[in-house]
Design goal:
328 residues, alpha/beta, D-Maltodextrin-Binding Protein, domain 2, 2 domains, 10 helices, 11 strands, 22% strand
Length: 328
């Protein structure tokens, strides 16, 4: 089965190989001469982060590689599963849906040939309303409220409506880009915006400059209820994230993982993981979200089978105790 792909390719590069993986002592049997990393739309964290580590790996391993513009986590699972992209990036929710065969790109197809490679960072779920609305808690959201959930088919649009359903919120669903929804909130066309995106969300930061907003946190009970129902983790939005916040705001987040086609050679994936995980400073220079791209976060994957090359790296270098039945 073939899947349509966006055609833009970002910053492909061919450069000299590193001293570690370009010499004759490394078995390169079966390695591809080039690779692509499925990211998301331009201007987002996925595109910047994914293109960055693709270029880093290409440079270190002496290959041609780059980030590919895609529709995001759901499409990345499909592209990597079929081998149309060697690597990709996904959140745990879309990964779980893809394994169960409920990925909307190919309903019924269990995308089991996409394996976990390394932890990336967390995507927090955050809720914002204008102060003038009087909405300060989730319970304050009035019946029939118009809520903007981000781009159609995004992680935010896939999971935040379900979370609102779980919490008993009655709403009208709206979709759009981050900046567009922020403008609609300010113009009174929306009551609430509910984003799953790296913080600070630029649209929310911009709103703070122009008007008074409320960053709405979950109660402990709401947080626990959402964590029990969805593949998310406890998260606090730090007080210094937004000028509006006076203290940390209770939230939840979904982990992002890089993924690899499970059929790629073990030595190749091991080398890719080593390149990305062995020097966090280089990754943070690519995108500050990479502050969470740390070996100790290997255990945040509770959904996908590990690629054997990735599993070996984390077992050897991070003391990981990955069960054998979680390694492909």
């Amino acid at each position: 089965m073939s899947f349509s792909k966006f055609t833009a390719i970002a910053a492909a590069s061919v450069v000299s190989a590193s001293a570690v993986f370009a010499d004759d002592h490394v078995d390169r049997t079966g390695w591809p001469e080039s690779f692509t990393v499925g990211t998301a739309s331009q201007g987002g964290t996925y595109f910047a982060y994914g293109s960055g580590w693709a270029n880093l790996v290409a440079e270190e391993l002496g290959l041609t590689g780059g980030g590919e513009v895609t529709g995001g986590p759901m499409q990345n699972m499909a592209l990597v599963h079929t081998g149309e992209a060697q690597f990709g990036m996904t959140t745990m929710g879309p990964a779980m849906e893809s394994l169960l065969g409920t990925n909307p790109i190919a309903p019924g197809l269990q995308m089991t040939n996409a394996c976990a490679m390394f932890p990336m960072y967390q995507t927090p779920f955050s809720v914002t309303a204008l102060s003038s609305s009087g909405i300060t808690t989730i319970a304050d959201i009035p019946a029939g409220a118009k809520i903007g959930f981000g781009p159609a088919g995004s992680t935010s649009d896939t999971y935040f409506p379900r979370m609102m359903d779980e919490l008993g919120v009655d709403y009208e669903r709206r979709n759009g880009g981050w900046s567009d929804l922020g403008g609609q909130l300010q113009d009174g066309l929306l009551d609430v915006i509910a984003f799953a995106a790296g913080v600070p969300v630029p649209a929310v930061s911009q709103l703070e400059v122009q008007t008074d907003v409320n960053i709405i946190e979950f109660t402990e009970e709401e947080q626990a209820k959402i964590m029990a129902a969805f593949p998310v983790s406890e998260f606090n939005i730090a007080a210094d994230t937004y000028s509006t916040l006076e203290s940390d705001a209770r939230s939840v987040s979904m982990w992002n993982f890089s993924i690899a086609n499970c059929d790629l050679p073990e030595s190749f994936v091991y080398a890719v993981v080593d390149t990305v995980m062995s020097d966090n400073e280089r990754m943070v220079n690519i995108h500050r979200a990479a502050r969470s791209t740390l070996p100790e976060n290997w255990d945040k994957n509770k959904v996908l089978d590990w690629h054997p090359g990735a599993a070996r790296w984390f077992i050897e270098n991070a003391g990981a105790t990955i069960p054998e039945n979680m390694i492909r």
